[in-house]
Design goal:
The chain has one helix at residues 77-80, and strands at residues 2-5, 11-12, 17-21, 29-33, 39-40, 45-49, 56-59, 65-70, 84-88, 102-104. It starts with a strand and ends with a strand. Helices cover 4% and strands 39% of the residues.
Length: 105
């Protein structure tokens, strides 16, 4: 999952939850909760992978900042038959309807 910050300020993702919906996940299964260090710099990215790894900051070949994070799961979302992913704000149990500060690719 790739999140892009299209704004001019940093986006702090601590506490944001990625919820998998559909298939074995049913109406919703928590796939990942971002920790304190997850920050999307302006015009930067966060790449969330299924694998196990150590979160770190990096740069793409064209110079964009990217934060690499890991869901620490051996299971893939395809194995769950997931239909969609939802980004949940830490202050509310509702899925964000507007992703004006970042986009999901």
């Amino acid at each position: 999952m790739l999140l892009q910050n299209q704004g001019a300020l940093k986006v702090y993702l601590a506490g944001y939850t990625i919820l998998a919906v559909g298939g074995e996940a049913g109406t919703g299964r928590v796939w990942h909760v971002f920790r304190e260090e997850a920050v999307i710099p302006p015009r930067g990215y966060v790449l969330l992978r299924t694998a196990v790894g150590v979160p770190c900051a990096a740069r793409t070949r064209d110079g964009h900042e990217v934060f690499l994070d890991y869901a620490c799961s051996e299971e893939t979302l395809n194995s769950w038959g997931v239909d969609s992913l939802r980004v949940l704000n830490p202050q509310t149990p509702y899925a964000l309807k507007s992703a004006s500060r970042f986009s999901v690719h």
